[in-house]
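Write out the bound-state structure for hypoxanthine.
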Amino acid sequence: MENAGMKRGIVIEDDWPGFSLDLFTSPEHYHGDIHSVYIPHGVIMDRVERLARYVMQDFGSGLTVLCVLKGGYKFCADLVEFIEVLGRNSNKYLETRVEFIRLKSYLNDQSTEELHIIGSRDLSFLRGKSVLIVEAIVDTGKTMKALLKHVETFQPQMVKVAGLLVKRVPNMAENLTDYVGFEIPNRFVVGYALDYNEYFRDLNHICVISETGKLKYKV
Ligand code: HPA
Ligand code: MG
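---
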């Protein structure tokens, strides 16, 4: 029962409108381009702190984090930081190594079919390790499935997946994510390192992009 919140995370319902922009702060130059603050930065941080506890419970003494760039960099940095804080304040310390992999699968707000691994495909450092894949967003699961298959070829001892956001998409395969921050409707969100054609990564909150924003930064 204790880990009941792990598999779905905090569920955000389809009719959640988000918070009005003027209740928080955000960069002035994005004001016309975002619709609402969907998940405020403070809530993200509180949830990531809780995910760190789950990870701490499940992993033994060592942890190899595989951060999926670029979208995962803030989530990864904050998650690892919380894990380290927990280690300093308890008698269990998880020795943590962080590695990076860069994937690209989106153009505008559409998923492209193939998995593009940019940079080194050689992950032989994962052999025999307890691995935590840290990904900002999991939707169709296609990318994650392909990545898991790739990771497995290097024979890690165990692999778990942390996803800050999991989208409720039609005919989603089984949920591949072990630690879910938030389950959200199938909407395109930006901020907290999530981008729309490389824009909006510098927003601290997770926000919903407006039609104006989509047009303005379309490629
Ligand atoms: N936002 C940003 N990047 C993404 C999303 C999203 O909603 N879904 C998949 N990649
Ligand atoms: Mg992207």
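---
The chain has four helices and ten strands.
The two ends are 46 Å apart (CA to CA).
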